[in-house]
Amino acid sequence: MPPSGSIDTLRAIRNFAWPHAPENTPSMLSDWSDLRTILAIARAGTLSGAARALGVSQSTISRRLQAIERDAGERIFVRSSDGGFEPSALGTRLVGAAEEMRTAFEAARAALGGSQTPVRIATCEAIANAVLTPVLPRWAVEEGGRFDIAVHDDLFSLPDDDFDVLVTPLESAPADMVGSRIARLDWGLYAGEAWLARHPAPLVSGSLAGSAVIAASGSLAEVGAYRWFAGLGGERVASATSPLAMADLAAHGVGIALLPRLVAAGDRRLTELAFSGLPSSDVWMVAKRATAERPQVATFLKWSRRNLKDKARPDG
After folding, report:
1. Does 5 score more than 70 pLDDT?
2. Chain segment 71-121, per-residue pLDDT in tens
3. How many whole angstroms separate alpha carbon 48 and alpha carbon 41?
4. From CA 198, how far away is CA 206, in angstroms rounded?
5. What is the pLDDT, as a whole number, of residue 109?
6. Domains in the chain and their CATH numbers?
7. 3-state secondary structure the chain
């Protein structure tokens, strides 16, 4: 018998999980990826959302669905009144089968992968760069663990099975998750030299009325600090899903951006504007309760609480 480290874990999981598919899984499905596509569409309600969740293009998702429905000889999804996708009677059966397959997948991964399976961390680009990558290599050295960091723009729309651990600004851990606060983001308003040359007068605290602003879009707009920023008014001239993109736009004189100081502090192209009442945000590392009980994830969460605590301030 080969040593566990030589097992091709993903192939072994597929070989295990597909023969264990629920009995009501239609035979026209070729493998787990078909069910995963169906599950992603059902959860997102749109082809574009499913595409983002699976990391493929919308046209790829559309082709996959067309092929599945062609083989099935009937519709898997129907259009809802708001234009979204809802499972048909057959689709409802397949979504249930996909959920059972996901459970089988997790069981197989635990049995076959053990400590060889990376902890899958979902986060945004700014937190990955400033909070995680400077510290997580020590996880590999100290604990012999492996990790995979996936950067997403729409963290709050990710399917549960796309990550083990989620790292994002939150007001508190969601009810169905467990975790801890690992960092605190301080925010500031920033602009580039070109904008400052055009607007030499100081800002009036409490309002950005009449000023060009760079807004947040996607799930970033749901972060409390960006809701505060939106409430200041101003003329929305651009938007972005990433603070790093906002920093570049501000540096080129597009307008005022709200940025984490950990992103902007070392950027000489940017100047922080005097403004009172600036927010701060807690960064949480969370996992679904069942996922957090897996030994490797539990060990990772415990290690992270010790080593990532309050690592996000620019002054260290």
Report:
1. no
2. 888 899 998 888 889 999 988 988 888 887 777 766 666 665 544 578 999
3. 9
4. 21
5. 60
6. 4-114 (1.10.10.10), 116-182+282-307 (3.40.190.10), 184-280 (3.40.190.10)
7. CCCHHHCCHHHHHHHHHHHHCCCCCCCCCCCHHHHHHHHHHHHHCCHHHHHHHHCCCHHHHHHHHHHHHHHHCCCCEEECCCCCEEECHHHHHHHHHHHHHHHHHHHHHHHHHHHHCCEEEEECHHHHHHHHCCCCHHHHHHHCCCEEEEECCCHHHCCHHHCCEEEEECCCCCCCEEEEEEEEEEEEEEEEHHHHHHCCCCCCCCCCCCCEEEEECHHHHHCHHHHHHHCCCCEEEEEECCHHHHHHHHHCCCCEEEEEHHHHCCCCCEEEECCCCCCEEEEEEEEEHHHHCCHHHHHHHHHHHHHCCCCCCCCC
Say yes or no to pLDDT of 234 above 70: yes
Output the average pLDDT for the chain: 81
**Per-residue pLDDT at 3:** 38
Instruction: Give me 191's structure tokens.
Output: 């602009």
CA dist 256 and 249 (Å) reads 9
Give exposure, 56-74, as e/b (b: 16+ Cβ within 10 Å).
eeeeebeebbeebbeebee
